[in-house]
Amino acid sequence: MTEQATSTSPNTEEGEDVIGRASATEREPNTADKFSFWIRPGERLNPFDIVAAEHLEKSKTYGLVTNIRHVTDAAGHLSNFISNDFGELVDEPNTPRQGANVADISVLSNNAEIYMPVQSEARVRFADESGIHNALGIDTMQEKEAREGRKVRIPAGVIRMSNGQEAVAYLDVDYVLGPEAGHANISGISGLATKTSYITFLIQSILQTIATEKIAVILLNVKYDDLLHIHEARPLEVGEKELWDRMGLRPEPWPADRVHYLLPWGKQTQTTGRPNAFGETIPPHKTYAYDIKTTAPKLDLLLSHVPDPWDTLGALIGEVSQGLQGNESKWRTIRSWQDLLTMPPLSENGIPQKFGNIAASSVGRFLRLLRRSVQTRQTGLFVPQLSTRMTTIETEIGQIQGGHTYVVDIARLTDVEQTLVFGDVLRTVYALYSGETALETDDELPGKVIVFVDELNKYAPSRGESADSPIVEQVLDIAERGRSFGIILFSAQQFLSAVHPRVTGNAATKILGRTDSAEVNEGNYRFLDKDIKMHLTRLDKGELILSHPIYRQPVKIRFPRPPFQQGRIKK
Question: Which of these, 95, 152, 206, 526, has the minimum number of CB atoms within 10 Å of its CB?
């Protein structure tokens, strides 16, 4: 007998679980990377299902369904038209056509490492859970756990196939938190809070799976009060708990004693006591603000949105920052934002002054930009002096603890203020983990810190003049070198193409929600099969495409809603 005959001969009893047989033709041969199979009549199959085909030496080749076609014996559409009495018959054709549904499969793996093409007539079945894990390489994570005696697998969602078979999708912690790779990015137009919901679910999965005490989390709340109630439980709906249980996770909110809310000072906070935040109820919190003294080292972040092709503005910012931080004699009278805007050495009697080699006109431009940011268009975040009722981002993050979560609210701030706060968070964390500054407490610095921000395209755009600015440089530092220090960036945006490619390129784990057809044709989606790209346009809410370095192809997953209150009142 030939080798082909051996491969197609039965190695198990014939059963109802066979859904078709592999099919290779002269024009469409099977290859080591792809194969096709006809689908048994009555069977239902969908893209992203994972199937197992019998192969050589009683092995199994696993593959991902990328497309499904219906083929007939008609030579062309004209033949079908003619067989219906030239279009007159709409009930039954004169010449019934023979047809079949054919699935296109992208090869994922073979359980015996045999990557010869799948032979024609090989029987095909839905993969079971162990087969799905073998197909995606998840079984190697289990082997690593047994070999190294540590937890490696992070539950990231549930794969649900057309026949009802389910399998937990796991991520390898070494490719999420380092050292192999790091960072995660999610994009899509999937709907209200979908991206935030998934990232918070993934963070909770990490905290429940890996040693919690070694990981700190910083969440930037950018929309309404979505993340201002993560310590409050939400009643679970029917079936939600089962999904959490399926992944071995607990549907619990963040512990109230381990969540620290940092909310911004507002124009009315002094009299009302209420911070500048959305929502009817405000959680226990500390209120942060910026005065001239604490902001001096961060002035470049405050004006990072301003084009500066000749670095004139950058040179002046450097002089001001150095002078204020060093308490140089000419700067000692500057004690508030108003002083900086109206007093020497930059201004006298309301007239901008030449400063060193910097012309008075350039000084005037700097003062106009600064006045607009900290006076005329501010939300109350910039204050003359810090009072005992205020704190700073640097102070609070400088006391970061493992097992604790810090929620920094920026939802009601202007774009300029949001950029400053986000940059302040990144710069403070980077200084701590790179050794530039020391932790302000006697506690040990957490082994890892996860920073999550939505609308990343605001801070690291892919194009435009702002694509080269201090805030972009800070984000790139985190994306390219952060994981070696223990800083992991989780980010989100609607369009992957709108974010700096060096940021998304360094995100080892990519999650994609529903995306429009114009977006999926951008170069940022080159890592996806062309058929998978089009499936992105019709994902349902709660469905995501997950790409991970261990996986040989992206897979479709479902995930549970967060177990905490989310976005209570939009005021």
Answer: 526
